[in-house]
């Protein structure tokens, strides 16, 4: 208390120095000041917490103050108020320099002392000793009351009598210090702001520390013990500024950005549409396929229609005729369900086929492997090569109008004279007949001891002679058809003076010997083996004979004018079947059982070997152009070779079910034919174009029937008429037929 | 009349007709319109007309008639015909009736030793046939052979009677496969029981291949021949020795030991143009020769200049040809198919046949126009049938099936008979055909 009194004294001393006005004010505004002080203290206390650890240093050193503080007790508020009042004074009297310093110091310590005291009790409410004690309740509650609240002793604090407005205005106008007055509603009193408080407010407004005696730049005192600290200095998380971004991540990002820019990555995914399930749709649609699963949905059964109704309309009900016609259908084609009418649902009988249906379903499931069939949905018609219509390829032989009857056994070979007037035929009955093509009249008959194998007209029109192979002999027969001069020539040609010395060299005698044959009127050539075929050269002087059993001397070439025989200078590989002269060039074709070889007769060398791939060649024919060859085989295949194209067949036609016996080209029409033991002859259109780029066109045209089978043989030979599109066929039924267009 | 006894229902299907004819009076009927049932066929119409005639003439023997409506022969029932031709049945229908063309009598066949290859009946007094035994025969009537023409060494392919004016006797030309033609002269009036063998008075050489056909000019001065050497040659037929080659005659005489002298002639001119066998020639007018060939063409030749004036192309081989019909201008030809085609060369710009008859089943070997009629044709075929045709209907009038084998030749004779020869070595005469 003594201290307080001392202070009071000091204050009073100082106060005496200061102006009286302030002195007056002091008492009035004591309460207010306290309040303001409170607020001021709060401000430094806030700054204290984060940046000013050295704030409390004055009071630690000042032990005297400390003890003083402890003595405060209940009258603290009063002393405080007095002090703050003095400090406020001091601020005003700041201009005094000399003794003011000391005072300031003292004052400062005082103030800090007092501050500390306030800070000890945390709540600001405690240090305030307001008159009213109602607390923080809305004052509206006391609006209609006589009192504004209660004081510390519980007595009602009476409301002051209200001045009316005019009165208060006049009062305020008179009073020069009215602007410093503030009405405190809580305590129901007017408070006047002191000078000190004003200063404080001014400092705050300027953004300075509220107390002028506060030193923001006090020397730093390191309170921390740096050694043997157990915990880290700071437990705070790593600050963001310390973060180092990853180089590789940034590279990756760059890459991604680039990819997005280039459109490799699409960020905007199309919105997935809602998938609806098509209840009656086909399951084998795209979704399953996309999964790449070999999922095969079970076939959907047909939905019932009107005809399955128990009482369908009349048009669904088949007539009796239709039902009967179902019986004529195939089992599979028959409709499974035949609609019937019932008057009511009651009258419908049980399904009679129920068990059967289930059984068949089981069979289906059991027997059919559920494998996806690769079915190509192509119209089979479109796969066919586009062939010209047969109608456009007319004329070609179609119907048989003439028959040449007279032979008593199978006709093996036929040949037509170059002008097309005569026909020669050789038969197994040992006869050769000459027929008139036009009428079917048999003109002449030669009889031989053995079966005739082959007949061939001389290709020259002026020399109507026929070469006939019978057994081991080849006869050159004079038909006696030409006029006198021609006959004379033929007689000269066929005349043979000395049958004794047929040839100069000895070994050729054994191959073939020439004899005059008076019985048949011609020349007889005796070979050492059975002759199977005779072919004339186009100039009618040379002809070749083939002896299949003749081995190295199997193919011979004879010259009629010189009565000379020579063997071919080529080595034969395989069993020869037939030989043909090229129609224009000096080329000779020999077909063995497997292959066909073309030899140049002039250079005496092999030109080409045609690989047929056939099992057994039976016949060969050369196109009149000479570049195409057809080969017939015993297995019923017909090969067309384009000599310019390759040594492999250009086309293989498999049409005959049995052996092909002969093939033939037409001399002028684009036709070729094959005849077979199945009693048919096929006629084809075989167009060879002069343009080398265009492949031959082969169109099957007609199947010629009519011959009857005899001893398993059918048609033995076929030849075209040289000038008309007619085909002659010789049958094993000993009839020769002529098919005309 | 049987018309009275028909009921109402059939009445509705009646047509009003009037029968007209160009026939002579005993065959005429009153030209009154009468109603007849429309379902009558040719037979019904024929009996009807016969009844009508019998009404006027009681000793009338029924005979078949053929009926023409608008120039078309009735070959089905009347209502069908009217429907097919869309002729109105409302107005009175004019039906013309003619005598039915059909053979009434089949004469005894005249037997030959070999196939009969050709026949000619252009002279009503006799028939000439060529035969495969290289003889030609002259027949006065069926089975009555008066002359045998011998001399050829090969099959006679064709015979032709030459009408020579102002020359006594008969001249016949024969073409043979021995590449020659021969001309024969004989007198038909000699009636001897045994046939006379005569030899040719003229031999025409020149063809290098078999001669296929021969035809004489209508004046009889020349003949033409077609051959397998694809030429047509024209020859003089006169027997004067002025143009003949005397030297060659002498030579022939020595070689052949002929009893009488034989002339030898050479071709006056050669018509070259065909590329294949000339199978048939016709020389109907003085200056025009028609020829058919295996090269599928019919050609018209100017006999004077030897130029080919026009061609008709067919797609088939042609074997026979004849010219006749309306103003002797229609060309009938048959060949290597069963269709007999008739062209009208006067129609410009088309080579399509105007008529096609296709009742045969095999090659047609011969076709001949009737001399007088515009409409009638005879054709023979390898199917063994001889058919009579009328241009006014597509069906054959009559089918003569007297041959057992191929028929090789056919001709008209005397205007009312059809003669035909075939591979059964027979010459058949079907007579009593009342054309016109």
In short:
The complex is a heterodimer of chains A (741) and B (436). Chain A is α+β, with helices and mostly antiparallel strands.
Primary descriptors:
heterodimer, A: 741 residues, alpha+beta, five-stranded antiparallel beta sheet, four-stranded antiparallel beta sheet, 17 helices, 25% strand, elongated, B: 436 residues, mainly beta, five-stranded mixed beta sheet, 36 strands, 9% helix, ribonucleoprotein complex binding (chain B), WD repeat (chain B), WD40_PAC1 (chain B), NLE (chain B)
Describe the structure.
The complex is a heterodimer of chains A (741) and B (436). Chain A has 741 residues and is of the alpha+beta class. The termini of chain A are far apart. Chain B is mostly beta strands and 436 residues long. Chain B is built from four helices and 36 strands. Chain B has a five-stranded mixed sheet, with helices on one face. In chain B, strands 6, 7, 34, 35 and 36 form a five-stranded antiparallel sheet that branches. In chain B, strands 8-9-10-11-15 form a five-stranded mixed sheet, with no helix packed on it. Chain B starts with 7 loop residues before the first helix and ends in a 5-residue tail after the last strand. Chain A binds chain B through residues 394-395, 401-402, 419-421, 438-441, 483, 723-724, 726, 740-741, and chain B through 115, 117, 132, 155, 179, 208-210, 228, 276-277, 279, 294, 315-317, 319, 336-338, 362-363, 382, 406, 408, 423.
